[in-house]
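Notes from hallway chat w/ T.B., transcribed later so I don't forget. T.B. wanted the structure written out for a chain they're using in a teaching module, and asked if we could keep both sequence and structure tokens in one place. Agreed to drop them here.
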Amino acid sequence: MDLSNLKPALGSVKHNTRIGRGPGSGKGGTSTRGHKGAKSRSGYSRKIGFEGGQMPLQRRLPKFGFKNINRVEYKAINLDLIDALAEAKNLQKIGVEELRAAGYIRRGQLVKILANGAIKHAITVEANAFSAAAQAAIEAAGGTAQKI
């Protein structure tokens, strides 16, 4: 064996079919593109949502609503959950860090305390927002509600 008789293994090299090179090749004429129409032209690319000229779905459906860019999204935490957490971990102060450590909120989430349930212990609660009823319930139990 030497350099003069080296060749690739059988079937490892595949040559691309050359289309549009005359009728003798068997791939001339329409060059495998069929007859006429947009798909037979060079540079054709179908637009996203194109339905063959029919009015596309995104134009048939009506527009409605809007998204308020100034909306502030809070994670709602109820008083019964705060009370249960304080009792389970024997806490006097519950803030965002304690709620995150317990797995109730993710990092960077804003917390709003809501008045669902009852609170029995005098706890200092720190949160980004309170409902009026929740704040009143915390203070009625002898605790304090502090806004961050």
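Follow-up for T.B.: The first helix runs from residue 57 to 60. Might be a good example for the class.
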